[in-house]
């Protein structure tokens, strides 16, 4: 069977199962604010979905996104999730022979999009104590060439959970500007960070900020995200987008309500997410051979290294899966470092985290003896 069929069946099985504890995809499983439910219901009951939404998104949503990010001078394009925006940016702004630079690990899909556009993908390793689990701007400076057309910075980094300091962002901007490159700052996890700095404030002309409603608002299945960029850049991107018929109108109504209720709802999510990080950290520190190298994380997830545990990431995931607990194997993010870690997402109810903590010792015991081939995606 073809790989994409296997992958699809794997996820189809998971989404149709009952009782899965989703600790693997950085999704957010807290009940939404009642205003969000009401907005989604209102839109469905009015059968608004018979029409197309405006091509760049509902004006109210575009304005709220710009306001939330504090990027009022820039333009907003509402996309079908951040991933569609990234696809579009890579395919539209990269040509064969261009170079696309990112970190290793990074979020893998934009690398596939860039390669499909004919660009050469360069990754700067940042995993490991020798790199401090973060990108040193000097290493980016050394990697840039006269062909560098795009720098893709996942900030906060998924999966590591590091976040660039203000000085690092200033240095990265200076390097991007010197190279005349687009800087794509993927801010999908910005809302979970302790202190986040937008490159677009320093380099508005060529920074493309991507943002998602999947993680902070818990809208992964509703598919809504945004690209924020200089009007000239967005004019170019708006010429031939993959979806010029407007993003899901129901989702956009929900996203508007989400932004309007954010200050009264999201602090609860953040508090519980950070409490969950502590619970996972405690369970890991009681388990031989496991470690959390970046703590606390600036995302809604933690990397857990397992090199000293005698168990492979895939075997740990499989053992937890048997208890209906889904966590992610490192190979999803990186070929080079994937054998060294798993990732656990924590924007979930505390009892899911408690189930993970309770299951971990036994799962590790079973994983240590498991040498079978395990297909995970
Ligand atoms: C770094 C990063 N960017 C983008 C996305 C996709 O976001 P969306 O669900 O809005 O397409 C993800 C999803 O995991 C991600 O980790």
Tell me what the structure shows:
This protein is of the alpha/beta class and 377 residues long. It is 40% helix and 15% strand. It contains twelve helices and twelve strands. The strands form three sheets. The protein has a seven-stranded mixed β-sheet with strand order 2-8-7-6-5-3-4, with helices on both faces. The longest helix is centred in the last third of the chain and has 24 residues, at 262-285. It binds pyridoxal-5'-phosphate. The site of pyridoxal-5'-phosphate has 13 residues, from α4.
What is the topological layout?
Layout: H1 3-16, E1 21-22, H2 34-45, H3 59-69, E2 75-79, H4 82-93, E3 99-104, H5 109-116, E4 120-125, H6 137-143, E5 148-154, H7 166-179, E6 182-186, E7 207-212, E8 225-229, H8 231-237, H9 249-260, H10 262-285, E9 301-305, H11 313-321, E10 325-326, E11 328-329, E12 341-345, H12 350-368
Helix pairs in contact: 2-9, 3-9, 4-5, 6-7, 10-12, 11-12
The protein binds pyridoxal-5'-phosphate.
